[in-house]
Structures are given as structure tokens and as C-alpha cells.
Amino acid sequence: MKVIVNLFGVEVRLKQEIFVEPASPALKDVLKGLKDQGVEQLERFIDDHLSPVGGSVILVNGRNFLSLDGWETRVHEGAELTFMVPVAGG
Amino acid sequence: MKGICGELLDIDLTSGKTKEIGISEETARKYLGGRGLGARLLYDLLPAKTDPLSPYNILIFLTGPFTGSMAPGSSKFVVVTKSPLTQGWCDSYSSGRISLEIKKAGYDGLVIRGRSNHPCYLQIGDKGVEIREADRIWGKDSFEAERTLKGLEGNASAGVSSIGPAGENLCSYACINSDFYRQAARGGVGTVMGYKRLKAIVAKGSKNCEFHDHKKVVELNRANYERAKVSQVFQARSKYGTPLTLNFTHTGGILPTKNFQFGTWEKALGKIDSVGVYKSVKSHRSCQSCFVHCSLITEAAEGKYKGTTLEGPEYETLGMFGSNLLIDSLPTVIQANVLCDKLGLDTISAGNVIGFAMECFEKGLLTAGQLDGLELNFGDDEACLAAIEMIAHRRGFGDILARGVREAASQIGGGSDRFAMQVKGLEFPAYDPRGAFGSGLSYAVSPRGACHRRAWPPAKEILGGVPPYTIEGKGEMIRDLYADNCIFHSLLVCDMPAKFIPLALDDYANYFEAVTGEAISQKDFQTMAGRTETLIRMFNNREGFTREDDTLPYRTLWEPLPDGPGKGQFIGEENLQRMIDDFYSCQGWDAAGIPTEATLQKYDLKKNE
User: Fold this and answer.
1) I want to staple B262 with a disulfide (CB 3.0 to 4.6 A). Which of B257, B440, B547, B549 is the partner?
2) Which of B314, B316, B463 sits opposite A88 (nearest CB)?
3) Domain assignment present for A50
4) Hey, are the CB atoms on B463 and A89 less than 8 Å from each other?
5) Cross-strand pairs, B125
6) Alpha helices in A3-87 (DSSP H)
């Protein structure tokens, strides 16, 4: 499946199209697929145990996965996954 | 108590008389400084129902206990007054050299009353204040005024705060400009200064502020810098500044687009977001007393405005002059930002008002004939810049737009109030509450009107994983966020280091003890915040505000978001009322928004005092 990946951190990467073949559409499996692919800079946000690094945030189509179904959140074809450090404010 | 001077300088511009007002240690302990002390002073010193544009209104500049201490983010000051835009409470914050210089002159702040019979400026130093004629700088823009005054005083390190033509012309959302690119912008504090015919304040002191244990402050700074260095949040903020927020608000579906009709704008990406702005960054700087260098110095790289330089633009300006007007040209946003700074306009309100006028133009409620031939279309760079000039100089229809979006909608009619994005007369900042309902509650109950500085709910509702489109628990959430910011804004520290180093309240308690010599607990901080927010509510109630003023515009309540993750969402009247009930209850106020007897007792406040 194709997913769109954004990274908002010390480096900003927008709209990277990544093809993954997860064991299931659950977020945890899609993340594992992304980690296995060695997506550059992803280690700044997700460690090898798939835990967010330093309070990093994961958004699935703009929604925090914690306010969806957590690690079981279903990721669909073309979904946008955003990994960001919790930095914002105007 | 160290960290405060214990004196305010009271200046009457009508009579020319000045005096000193003492601040008791008890008052300093109960209100700390900044917002807290400002609430106490405005409530006590301003007669009820005073016309904001009359000699009886007062303009209060305040520092805080940390000012001059080198605690992170402590270069802030606040201007407190009754707002000509909302007719209610107003506190507006800025960084600037002037905060340090006022304190070095031996004062915690200024209380400015009356109205001069000719343009003037204040020269503040160790020996007090002189009121000087300002004929040479009246009519000049803020940058020129500051340059002239620094030259006149022969000291480039003086602190200067000034107004531009917008303040002189009593535009309702005029700002006060400091150090060229820093503004106390919201609520029309520059308008009150303009009414008083006060062009500028220049301060230069040479006294040493007394702090309890300066070595301890340095030690805390060292330790916190070590924490910051390894924080990705700190590194990202230091590199990209606030423009990174645009990527986040676009992704989260709360980016104001086309006068808050939409919540996302793909065209912004790579142009007016972190990526686009970063390409134009020439250097970074930090405020004095801060090691987070999150301020960007940019230069327009191409087009008609090539070479224009700016400290900024910040996220709010990118949102309000970029996506909100469908302008994807960074050089235009930089130019609009510089123009507003020079002319002395709040970029948030100006961008909001122009977006509203563009929608009126699109809907045929405003015509080019009414706008001196201006075709005010969304996305039109030239029209946007022309509108800024019209507003600041109150030329033609600019005179109506200069009164703020609420008044403009009332003049234009035709149902335009449904998309006049304001609360209590203060224009929305750059977050669409339909995509984060807590922001809707925060805007609605905010005493200064639609405000992103009481609370920043997206931190919870998007970053924190709290469900964004529900109302449960939002009253408590907003109460807690209000309290946190009230503590920061009373200590008068920037809320950024707290988030990005990060620092917790215990860290600020450590700084407080090092600076003042007095221990303070989290409970003490929370009590101060509750007392301050309640006193501000009492101020607005006294001025005639009621629960009915705690509301949201039609678009936010009833028009579904057409795009983004919150597609289909709107807040709805019943949801808003339930959140308000919840918030009032958490604050200890009754259903009408009036503090209960028990709450007054808890905070040692008196009814009708």
C-alpha cells in the first residue's frame, strides 16, 4: 500500500510517498513496515520498539492516533501519516 | 521581596504631574506582576464604565519579578488597559529592551493617565520621567520614530516603544512597536496611546536590579541549557521558529483559509510554511535573557519586494496574511508584515479584517466603487497591501475597516456578521475552532475576546491526543490551560521556553526562589492564577459584560468545515453552552458567569470592591 509521510522535526520532509507491505492495516504494522524500509529520519520520532521518541506525536490523516484507535488504528491506501515533535504555538 | 522595585511611575499627561505609587509586598505576593498585578491595578484605578478613548482611561506598562534576572524568556512586558476594540479587559504582551530599562530605572512599571494637549513622548531614566514634545516624530512610522529617538538620546541601547500612524489615527487595532519588530499588538493598546497623543516611551536606566541569588539563576540556566540542547523540540523551534506551526495546523485542519471558510491549504506548503520561510532565513536571534533563538531574520528573495528584511514572519502573520487571504507569496507576506509594523497595525486583526472584506467583495456586499476602485479579491497581493494603507490612514472605506471586523460587519450589513470572525470585538487569531472544539470555548470565554494567548488548546486536542470534536472535559482543560498561561504571563516570561526546553512549574518555582528569596508552591501559583482570572472576570462584569458575550460567530457554530480531518464538524450552540457551563463551574463562577461568594472568599477578593 502507498502512504504519504510527513516529518516535522529538526528536519521537515513533506509528502513523501512510501510503499509498504504491512502484515495488517493496523498502524503498528504499518509503522513496522516503515521502520523496516529504513525511512530516513524516522528514528528521530519512533524507536525500534515502535515507541514515540521524546513525546513525538503521530497523526493519521491529521488526527492524533491516541484519539483514534491507538496502535490498532486502520491505515488505508493513500493515508497521510505525520510524525512530529510536539512543537507548535504562534 | 527581591525581584521587584516596589514602585510604579504614575504619569498624568493632562497635568504633566508625575508621582510614584508603591506596591506592597502583600500585593506582589498575591499577584506576582504582569497580568496578575495588571488586573489588580486596572480594577482599582480605572473608574467603572470609562470610555476607552477618553482621558480617564489608563495605560499600564508592567514588568515582572523575573525582568532583568536572565531567567529564560524574561524580556517580556505587558500593556494593560480598557480596550477600544472590545470595551473590556485588555492585556497585550511584547518582548523588548524597554522592560529591562524601566526596571533599571527603578520601576516595576508605568501608569499613564490623561491626555496631552500636543504630541509628546516620555523619557524615563534613573531620575524619573520627563514629558517631551514629539512634533518631530508625530506622523512618522514606528521604525523612523525609533531610529530618531535613539539618535536623539545618543544611545542605541535605550528601550523604545512607539506607535505608528495607525495609532495616531485611532485605528481600533493599533499596536505598540518595540525594537522595530516586536509588538504589543492585540486589542488596540496603540490606539489608547495614540488617543493620549503619546508617540513613544524611551527608557534608559543604570541601576542594578536586586535579586536574591544571581549565582543560582546562572546555575539553573546552565542546567536548563543542557536539557535544551538534547531536546528535539528545542532544536526544531530554534531552526524553524513559529512557521513550523503552519505545517501542523494545515495537517490538523485548523489553518484559517479564505476567511476561515476552510481549514487546510495545500498551496501554502513549501511556500509560506516552515520549508518556504526557511529558504529566506538569513540568521536567527533570541530575545535578551533567552537562549532559545527562535526568532528568524528573513529577506524577501524575489519579486517586487526583493530585499525587504524582517524579523519574522511569525505563524500568526503567515496564517492571517497568507492562507486566510489565499496569498502564497512569501515576499508579499513579508512586505505586509513590515508595512503593518511600520504603520503600527496588529497583523492578526488586519489580516482578519482584510479577509472579511475580501469575502464581502466576493459576495457583492462591497464593491470596487465603495473601495476607491480597489478590486479586493482573495489572492490579490497588491489589493492586500493597498488595504493595509487605507486602514492605517483611514482613507475611504479604510475608515470603516479600521474600526474592526465587528463594527465593519455592522456597517456593511447583508448578513456579513455571520462570517465576521471575532469574539467580543477581537478578531480571531490563526486557528479554526471547528477543528479543535476547546479553542472555541477558549475564544468564547476569553476576557479580551478571541485570543490564542489565554490558552493553546491544539496542544491538547491534536498534539496531546484529547478528542478534538467532543465537549466532555473541555471546561476543565481550558481552566487548566488558562491557569498555566496566567502564571507565565504574571511572572512575565515567554511561554515558549516552558514548552521547548521544556520547563515545568517546579522549574519556575526554583527560579522564583532564586530571584525573590521566597519559596512558592504549585498551589500558590494556581491560587494566584485563579484569583487573577476571577478578578478579570469581575472587571468585565463591572463594565457590563454578561454570559451572552461569551459566544462565537455563526460560521464557527453552524457552518460545517468543508475539508481536512474535521470535515463536517461545527461546534453548535448547545455544545458551546455546555462547555461554558463546565468552564464556569470549574472556575467557581455561577451560571451567569459571576464568581460565587465561596470563590471570592477562596481568593480573598471582595464583591464590588
Assistant:
1) B257
2) B463
3) yes
4) no
5) B128
6) 27-37
* Alpha-carbon separation of residue B292 from B213, B241, B511 (angstroms): 23, 10, 17
Q: Give the closest of B233, B251, B270 to A6, CB-based.
A: B251
pLDDT bracket for residue B208 (50, 70, 90): confident
Contacts of B380 (CB under 8 A, 6+ apart): none
Is residue A37 domain-resident? Answer: yes
Flag whether pLDDT at B482 surpasses 90: yes
Q: Quick count: other Cβ atoms within 10 Å of Cβ B47?
A: 8
Contact (CB<8Å) B248/A88: yes
Nearest-angstrom CA–CA distance, B603 and B471: 28
How far apart (Å, rounded) are the C-alpha atoms in residues B457 and B459?
A: 5
* Measured distance CA(B81)–CA(B83) in Å, rounded: 6
Element holding B505 (H helix, E strand): helix B505-516
CB within 8 Å of B582: residues ≥ 6 apart? B471, B473, B474, B475, B476
Of 3.30.450.20, 1.10.1740.10, 1.10.599.10, 1.10.150.130, the CATH number of B433-500+521-602 is 1.10.599.10
C-beta separation of B518 from B29 below 8 A: yes
The residue in chain B having the minimum alpha-carbon distance to the alpha carbon of residue A7 is B247
Joined together, the cell numbers standing for residue B68 give: 532583568
pLDDT digits (tens, 9 = 90+) for B334-350: 999 999 999 999 999 99
Full-model pTM: 0.98
pLDDT at B609: 62
CA–CA separation, B548 and B571 (whole Å): 17
Instruction: Kindly identify which residue of chain A lies nearest to residue B254, measuring between CA atoms.
Output: A62
Q: Do A89 and B459 touch (CB under 8 A)?
A: yes
Domain that holds residue A25: 2-82
Distances in Å between the alpha carbon of B371 and those of A18, B126, B374, B377?
A: 50, 50, 5, 12
**How much is the average pLDDT of B16-38?**
97
Spatial CA neighbour of A56 closest among B239, B236, B430, B276: B236
The pLDDT, as a whole number, for residue A18 is: 97
Of B266, B572, B241, whose CA–CA distance to B433 is shortest? B572
- At B291 the pLDDT is 85
Cβ–Cβ gap A15/B269 under 8 Å: yes
Q: Is residue A88 a part of any domain in this protein?
A: no
Query: Does ipTM top 0.95?
Result: yes
Tens digits of residue pLDDT in B381-431: 999 999 999 999 999 999 999 999 999 999 999 999 999 999 999 999 999
CATH architecture of B7-203: 4-Layer Sandwich (3.60)
B89-95 vs A80-84, strand pairing mode: unpaired
Residue A90 has its nearest CB partner, among B251, B452, B463, at B452
Looking at the domain assignment, is residue A38 inside a domain? Answer: yes
The CA distance from A8 to A83, in Å, is 6
Interchain CB distance below 8 Å, A89 and B239: no
Q: In CATH, what number is assigned to the domain containing residue A47?
A: 3.10.20.30
Mean pLDDT, rounded, of chain B: 96
